[in-house]
Amino acid sequence: MLDRLTLTNFKAFQHLELPLGPLTLLTGLNSSGKSSVLQALGLLHQSHAAGDLDRAGAGHVSGSGFLLNGELVGLGTGQDVLHEDFTGDEPAITLAVDEGPYRYSWTVAYEPEQNLLPLIDAELPATTEGTEGPAGDAAVIPSYFTAGFQYLHADRISPAEFYPRDHHAAIGRGFLGVRGEHTVNYLRHHARDEIPEGPLRHPRAESALLLDQAAAWMGELCPGVDLQAAAIEGTDSVRLSYGFGGALGTNHRRRPTNVGFGLTYALPIVVACLTTRPGSLVLLENPEAHLHPRAQTRMAGLAAAAAARGGQLIVETHSDHVLNGARLAVKSGALAPEDVLPHYFRGDGTGADVVSPRVDRDGLLDQWPEGFFDELENTLDQLLS
Ligand SMILES: Nc1ncnc2c1ncn2[C@@H]1O[C@H](COP(=O)(O)OP(=O)(O)OP(=O)(O)O)[C@@H](O)[C@H]1O
Ligand SMILES: [Mg+2]
Known about the structure:
The protein has helices spanning 34-49, 78-81, 167-172, 183-189, 210-221, 262-274, 293-308, 320-331, 375-384, and strands at residues 2-10, 13-19, 23-28, 65-67, 92-99, 102-109, 116-123, 149-152, 163-164, 226-231, 237-243, 281-285, 312-316, 340-345, 354-355. It is 25% helix and 22% strand. By secondary structure, it is an alpha/beta fold. The chain contains nine helices and 15 strands. A hairpin with a 2-residue loop joins strand 1 (2-10) and strand 2 (13-19). It is globular. The strands form three sheets. Strands 2-1-5-6-7-4 form a six-stranded antiparallel sheet, covered by helices on one side. Bound molecules: adenosine-5'-triphosphate and magnesium ion. Adenosine-5'-triphosphate binds next to helix 1 and helix 2. Magnesium ion (MG) binds at residues 34-35, 154, 285, 316.
């Protein structure tokens, strides 16, 4: 599990050290740097996947650097990502992650027009001759580079008649796509995978199989719904359909375009949580999007279940219902209080300012900074005065 992310001279942050836990919530003002935190993790992941952080061992550097534009993030060029008021003698960007006792840190030089920023330094856990590093071999990398990984952006695919059937992403790598575009194909292919007994297995699903489990969790958001995902013969497409029971029975299917926006928009989040295994990292932007308040709370319950299963979730949210769902998960004993880390970003775009309330055993917070989900109270005060 990632315990900490440290950013130096990256986008809005001159310097930020952010503690991470099984369920980390990034909350706060618009443009305060929440997505940038997720982007930093995505940037490292895609740079590694492209081979650009490979073999950057302690004492020598031979990887090529940060790949700014790729499958996970498209950040532009050096001048877009270097913090405009950079700290240090030279303009350089450092991203570091801590996993348990191990720290991995990479520094790249500033090249204003380049989209591959060259690696100039790497501090990685030492592997001395005859002893193994944390990864168990000479390639010293954080385990999140190779464990299960999902990253869903705020801007996901909207309900459609057909979805792409990309074998490599959905089946080979089990990746749902940053817009959730491979979710339906993933569901089709993995429909009969079993969700193991434990916090993620929905007790009232028809079976332990992924498709029934996904339908049961979707039923938490929209009662009575069931799902089908089928390939369309002779095409590179898959089709999703919903059933709602009713007089025509479950054989009567409805297209995603005819069941409202929220269900299909939420499906990738539900599936991402269900794919979580011990060691997985799941980055979610705004899982609450297009859901009504109770469904938002339930969605947080699912994220908490994924964390209780042993995954790590970092969730950007504007929803007090998501925060409250996580607090309820603590109160119910599904997660320990120290497993939920809410951070409140209140930077104004010119600097980082993060406050981190702590959750206690009853799900209560030790502080409630001004502007931190206090709008309901503010409005009620005005209404009642
Ligand atoms: N090179 C840079 N130097 C300084 N600040 C930057 C740089 N690039 C981006 N920023 C700032 O970083 C912030 C990026 O915000 P980010 O997208 O992380 O916001 P967010 O908190 O996710 O917002 P939202 O809630 O709207 O999704 C913006 O305030 C932007 O002005
Ligand atoms: Mg954002």
